[in-house]
Amino acid sequence: MPYTIAAPVHSELIIKKSRFIGCVQPMTDRAAAQQIVYGLKQQHPGACHVCWALLAGGQSAAVDDGEPSGTAGRPMLDVLRHQDLEGVLATVVRYFGGVKLGAGGLVRAYTDSVAQALLQAEKTAIVRQRQLRCTVPYAMEGMLRRELDAAGATLLAVAHSDAVLFDFSLAEGAASALLAHLHEAGNGRIAWLDEQD
Q: What is the model's pTM?
């Protein structure tokens, strides 16, 4: 099951006089991530590198920002993947301390910066939602509202015309059981407007 994090969390490491300021935060897409990275570059004009990694909505990124190829962004991305995270941006701002770390040292520093921040992060499971739409006769509106509430569904919209139109969502894992129950309870009077199981 994939997880995301609830709020931004920071870490700071000093390794051979270089300062690594890490952050992991919830993120929706690449464009929003690039805005955050741009902001970090403005906030830290003296930093040598602002490296980042993103996993969000099927979009991923691993940016070394001038560090040797594969020593920053990719290791950071690997930490996010290893922890089964989704919708998360990891950034590390590096102030060079005058001592070269070598490729292995850089990989460890960037990996540790992200891992340290994630130790403090509150992880939440991502529950995939399924959206459904149906119509019912007016006489069944109350019954359907009670069933949706009992199943933990989120009512998105209700419209009244010749019949009552319901738009709702619920956890993907609960959808099949609710559909089967409503099919039986509705005696064929619930009309589904999308493809159903």
A: 0.69
Q: What are phi and psi of 12, to 5 degrees?
A: -145, 130
Q: Which sign, positive or negative, has the C-alpha torsion 175, 180, 183, 184?
A: negative
Burial class (CB in 10 A: 0-12, 13-18, 19+), 146: exposed
Burial (CB count within 10 angstroms: exposed 0-12, middle 13-18, buried 19+), residue 169:
middle
Question: Which portions of the chain are predicted below pLDDT 50?
Answer: 196-197
Place of tokens 């998360």: 88
Q: Which is it for the CA torsion 63, 69, 72, 77, positive or negative?
A: positive
Angle of helix 172-185 versus helix 141-150 axis, rounded to 10? 150
